[in-house]
Amino acid sequence: MNVPETRWLLDLQRLLPIRSHFVISGSIRDNFLVSLDAAVISTTNPSASDIVSTATLVPLNRALWESMKRNDYRFLLIYDPIDGLRVYPDEPAQRDLATRLFDLKLADGCQQLSLESLSKLMKRLSTEKEVRCAMVLDFSSRIPRKAEQLSDAEHRFFVAAEKLSLSASAIVPRDAGGLPQYNPVLWLVNRAQDLPSWFTLDSERVASLVISKPDFEMRQAAALQLAPLFKGYADAAAAVRTQFVKSFTEGTEGMSLAALSDITELADRQKLGITDIEDAVRCYKVGALDNPWRKDYLRKKIRDGQSFIEERVKGQHPAVVKTLDILKRSVMSLTGAQARSGGSRPRGVLFFAGPTGVGKTELAKTLTQLVFGDERAYLRFDMSEFAEEHTSARLLGAPPGYVGFDAGGELTNAVRQKPFSVVLFDEIEKAHPRILDKFLQILEDGRLTDGRGDTAYFSETILIFTSNLGIYVEDRQGERSQNVKPGDSYETVEFKVREAIGNYFKFKLSRPELLNRIGDNIVVFDFISAEVAGKIFDGMLRNVARRLQEELNLQLAMPAAVREELLARCIRDLSNGGRGVGNQLESNFINPLSRALFELELEGKQRVTVMAITEADKVISLNLQLT
After folding, report:
1. What does the pLDDT look like over 94-117, one tens digit per residue?
2. 7-211 with 296-524: one CATH topology?
3. pLDDT digits (tens, 9 = 90+) for 215-233
């Protein structure tokens, strides 16, 4: 198997003749795919052997050593603040050579060093002319307590290192010959800013190398390397093997090679074969093997879901049908099927738009109830709380180095805790545009990394955005006017709302790419009609009656004429939708009912009948009869 070249190792080889120190950051704890030479004994002639190269995943120190020994480096000195100094590889020949050259006093393979002693050893290594060797300072991020507030000893150490980087010379070993190269010092850090900023800025001889996450080609090579460890791979047909490698490679976009190794081990422990690779990847991402999206009972619930939803969300038949279509697509794993790779995108994306109080949030709750059996299982974020740019730190986590970055973000933390969920972003247009940019990554890649470096995966979520965009529009003078109103046909409402949403993202926000990611998943809600408002009214009145029975043990009754008068009061203005009906019911009925019952003796009473509704001096009163 041809092993792709590792970029940072190529850069290191290229810079060794001109740089004496290297600050290496990024994915330093990842594994790396390298070719290892091994001797193979001939079966026909045992005295003969061939050298063959085999691809293997190894940690950074091994990858570094395999690369540098090809340039005649004889050993590495590896230091970390806990174990001290050791020789790599830990073989007698290398250990004896390093001990002789640097007068090491190893105990159990290690030697503790002060910063002053370490500085002197770095200087001796840089001027060593007998052999090529290098020093690796592991966990360099932990050498200074605070990079910009060094102690006296730390300051002297880094100044000495800076001076050494400038004064060191490339050498040609006496025995090996060849071209001049440095005996380098390699600093392994989590982030470049973990070291004093002046150390890398003020020395031309200090090179910064960043180890990035593996690309598609490297992940594909690693998948081929790990494939034989999966159950059933050896006996699978060529087409099945090819599909396995493709799914493994595409499903691990943005992951490290160490993560691919962990997925392989997880699959072995869970007895997952090559046909279960998507389950193995998902299990690693979200930490759950059980996948509710593949349960047979869910398909049955969704198949019968229209009547269940329309029982709670009245008068929104087109919106309910489109929502169920998107949900069915999610269950069938066909979200993003038109793209080359869409497996990491959210299960579904819905953009609920329309007038206030017509059931957008209620449909999100009902959808959660339908899928997960509990309407409280959804995660709700009121985007009016994130109107300022700095509030992105609260939602998504502060950047590294800022106060609170180690706490993560409210959104990323919530999704990690509940990877199978409906995530509701209420009134999305009220969020700061810079925060909206973050949704591009979620909608396209299905993941988001917070300030701690932890990744939250949205591949098993349904994202719902709600908005009132398009109901009111601004003219060129900035004055708001009503764009659609009760009585307009649904076709008119849908056309005008969609047009206003497009104009908002394209021209006001200049974010057409965000609208493009949402695609045709915009679900427009209609104004509620008087007929629908009557059904909503009846449902709310039943809720009031049930509460009276539960709290006061009273049955509620009213003549048909009183009910019609109360209905007329509650639905005379439908511009605020069902929420407006509820507000009017509270003002015209619940408040005066509470006032009247408060003044009456209820002991032994079982029934309250509303005989009439009266209004005097703008105060509504109820005539009650208790029995």
Report:
1. 999 999 999 999 999 999 999 999
2. yes
3. 999 999 999 999 999 999 9
Tokens 């529009």 found at: 473
Domain boundaries, the chain: 7-211, 216-289, 296-524, 530-626
Tell me which of 2.60.120.1680, 3.30.465.10, 3.65.10.10, 3.40.50.300 is the CATH number of domain 296-524.
3.40.50.300
Element (H, E) at 38: strand 31-41
Amino acid at 56: T
The arithmetic mean of pLDDT across residues 284-304, rounded, is 78
- What average pLDDT does the segment 452-480 reach? 84
pTM (predicted TM-score):
0.73
CATH topology (fold) of 530-626:
Helicase, Ruva Protein; domain 3 (1.10.8)
| Residue pointed to by tokens 């060794």 | 16
Q: Are 253 and 446 in contact (CB under 8 A)?
A: no
Half-sphere exposure of 69 (CA within 13 A, CB side): 15
Q: Is pLDDT of 173 > 90? A: no
Chain length of the chain: 627
Q: Is 167 helix (H, G, I), strand (E, B) or coil?
A: helix
pLDDT of residue 337: 56
Q: What is the rounded distance in angstroms from the CA atom of residue 534 to the CA atom of residue 472?
A: 26
The CA-atom distances, in angstroms, between 346 and each of 152, 298, 413, 435, 442 are: 52, 18, 17, 18, 8
